[in-house]
């Protein structure tokens, strides 16, 4: 099974939103941004995109240098938050992953996030030993999740897998790589219709165990 991270395993807003507001406070203090912080809904609705595309949506009038400064600030605030105990997994994630691992299912993460963010979330939430590989767009410089998942499949010589995620990018990555797609329909920030093409949709992470039994 290949899992997306944000909105699938990790309840992203519990870490992201404090870091988001701190980032814009700092940008204003550095005279790099003027005005109110863009609505939380804007960045939450952008999750699943590459970071450069997120900033293009959140602050389209700012130049690329400001976007890159925002990259650094947001990551720093998030990593500091993780170290301070912020951020939570969705209910049942740790227990379900443990059960799948014990059943011999090979587990991977494929995320469009930055390398250090993905690895630190997994490490701080004590689920790292359950995964055989953590793949991120930040580490492998892929331009889409389709490419990232393809690279993972080829590297580990995987011919059959489930892609588990909450956004249209996860559905696309699974379908274009010939995988079974499980849509996670419990995150609050996806848009309507994003999971329409998933083979199965689940309302709770633990339902994966029921699907395996079938």
TrEMBL record:
Gene Ontology cellular component terms for the protein in this record: cytosol
Keyword Lipid metabolism: no
Species this chain originates from: Paenibacillus foliorum
Pfam family, one: HAD_2
Keywords: Hydrolase
InterPro entries, per the entry: HAD-like_hydrolase_sf (IPR050155), HAD-like_sf (IPR036412), HAD_2 (IPR041492), HAD_sf (IPR023214), PGP-like_dom2 (IPR023198)
GO biological process, one term: DNA repair
SUPFAM superfamilies: HAD-like
Presence of the UniProt keyword Cell inner membrane in the record: no
An example molecular function term from Gene Ontology annotations: phosphoglycolate phosphatase activity
Official protein name in the record: HAD hydrolase-like protein
């Amino acid at each position: 099974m290949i899992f997306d991270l944000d909105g699938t395993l990790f309840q992203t807003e519990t870490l992201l939103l404090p870091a988001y507001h701190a980032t814009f406070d700092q940008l204003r203090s550095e005279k790099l941004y003027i005005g109110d912080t863009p609505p939380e809904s804007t960045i939450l609705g952008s999750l699943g995109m590459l970071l450069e595309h997120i900033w293009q949506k959140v602050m389209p009038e700012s130049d690329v240098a400001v976007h890159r400064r925002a990259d650094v600030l947001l990551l720093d605030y998030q990593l500091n938050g993780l170290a301070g105990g912020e951020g939570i997994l969705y209910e049942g994630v740790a227990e379900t992953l443990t059960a799948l691992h014990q059943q011999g299912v090979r587990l991977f993460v494929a995320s469009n996030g930055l390398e250090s963010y993905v690895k630190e979330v997994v490490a701080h939430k004590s689920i790292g030993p359950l995964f055989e590989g953590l793949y991120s767009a930040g580490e492998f410089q892929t331009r889409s999740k389709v490419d990232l998942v393809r690279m993972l499949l080829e590297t580990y010589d995987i011919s059959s897998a489930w892609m588990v995620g909450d956004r249209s990018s996860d559905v696309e990555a699974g379908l274009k790589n010939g995988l079974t797609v499980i849509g996670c329909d419990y995150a609050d920030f996806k848009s309507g219709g994003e999971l329409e093409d998933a083979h199965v949709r689940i309302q709770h992470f633990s339902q994966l165990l029921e699907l395996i039994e079938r």
